[in-house]
Amino acid sequence: MLEVDGTKPIYIQIADWIETEIIEGNLAADEKVYSQYQLAELFNINPATAGKGLTLLLEAEIVYQRRGLGTFVSPDGREKLLNKRKNETLRKLIIELLDEAELLGVSNHHLLSMIEAERVRKEGGTK
Amino acid sequence: MTVVEFINVTKSYRTHTVLKEINFTIKQGVLTGIIGRNGVGKTTLMKLIVGFIEETSGKVEVFSEKPFNNLKVSANSILVDDGMNFPYPMTVTDVLKECNRFYVNWDAKLAERLVNYFGFHPDARHSQLSKGKKSTLNAIIGIAARCPLTIFDEPTTGMDSSVRKDFYRALLKDYLAHPRTILLSSHHIEEIEDLLEDVLLVHEGIAHFHGSITELQEMFITLTGKKEKLALHTNGKTVFSTNNLGPYSEWIIQNKCTQKELEQMKLDGIAIASVSANDAYIALTDRPKGGIDDVFE
Amino acid sequence: MYLNEPTLSDIVKKQFRFKLNANAASFSTFVLLQAGAIVLSIVGTNSSFFYSSDESLVTIITLSNDTNIVIAMVWAFVLGIMLTTRNKQSESFSFVSTRLSNHLSNFLFMLFSSLIAGISAVLSGSAIKLFGFIFHGEMVVHSSSIVDNPNNLLLQLVTAFAYILLLFLIGYSISSLVQTNKIFIALFALIWILATSMNGSWNGPEYALAIIKFFGSERSILLFTLKFIVAILGLFVISTLITNRSEVRN
Fold first, then answer.
1. Second label for C119, Cα 20 to 30 Å away, from B121, B266, B285, C15?
2. Among C2, C24, C95, whose Cβ lies nearest the Cβ of B102?
3. Which domain holds residue A48?
């Protein structure tokens, strides 16, 4: 898929939103997902566009369909998503990080220690 | 099932030809946006569909029948535009009563609730309403009539922005509850793009583009970066529009780059973004590399 | 997809009702005009005769409802013109309509209006008589009323109705012609100028009377009716045909 820095097409945003709902646990395994009409109403968009968002998730087997009953979260949907985010989103961010570090002449060792320092600070802040 | 079909339709007036052998079909239940610059024939096209005017040549079919002087087409379609007028003495209530008798699917309760919501005095005369209020009432009629083929031509003319939003929301909700074929035109694509399933772009008298809104949105990408870098990376590609933003330029090209090309662009500091329907539409209707800036060069 | 398939007569009926509502104001105008005509008619036409033999002066006051009928005809003519204006046409097309259903409902409206206008113009004759007694207080030499001559009144009703309807359709046809091509405006203006220059001034009632003469010279009621029906239907069919391809809301 196209890598976008700017605004994403709505159907992708819809898919993203449902994914986040699954990751955050708002939608559990085998729980019914919003229908395209509910999504259309919720986001004020055309139901066909909402349907495209659901189709993306169906193709990735994050959700499955039961004839006449609707769309449900796959038992391993959340796991798949977590892997996907690790492999795609996180990897993308790391590549960007490495590019930026290279541009600034920051060594690998220095970069790792910066990450560690940031983690300590964050954990300290939440305590 | 096809609701509207145009086959090589030409419509000429004495001095000029508006539609030139235009071809397209509209399927049942699809909400289609009719877009195009002023004077390209969007209104002409809509009037042909409801039989207000007659094609010069070609074939127009609505519900598989020729719409001109066709009672069935008239009874099952409605065109809401600013030419929708009612006799001088009729009040808002009178107009709604007439609608109730003419349109079999008319939802009187919905019409009444909408009229209340938008703050109409039931005894106000239609002819004395402000332009925005007239548009609002006409739009309410278009929604409540629930015609199998509902057409809005620039329905929000004169409405203020909150009323526009409410109208589009009302239209969507009623469309979800009572699916029907809807055609909607507007100058402001960004205002209606989320609502649309399909887009019919009329340009130079023909259907320049007809497909889903996502297809239109994914047709192009925007590249933002330094001019020289952009020129380097777009070598051999058609640039549809250029726009200068301070030190950076924004170029729109077709979304046909390989993953490798895109990655190299990013390495060169070029930001890649998707294109809004409006920008895609401008890219499609502009001559390549021609814009207002070129006039001054 | 469920499609509604209305019949022509169903839509014509609905449009007829719509036209009655839409043109309610023209009926109040009509009532005002008739009231004015009654006031004018009560004054009557005086003609005095001096008889030298016995030195008596005889004044004959003629009261008639001719003015009412002529005014009703002029009203019908103007309303007929107004029914086919672009504005009125586009108003009809705000609802379900075809050109044919629009014409047919207009025709029904004109029939109905002619009937109402005819009846009130004829009955205003009785009102004039009543007021005549009060104001003039003279002896009535001759009067035809519903009591002593019901046939006469019926005949008056039918003829008034027929003439008013005829004027409706003349106005309607002129306006339809103008709709198809603006050249007809110039043509009708020319006819107007010629007509007025012939006898010096525009005299509406006189032209109305000319029409009455054309039809009224007919002695046989059957032929008279036939002449009217042919004229009215002819005008209606012509108006319908010439505007059947006209473009609306354009």
1. C15
2. C95
3. 10-76
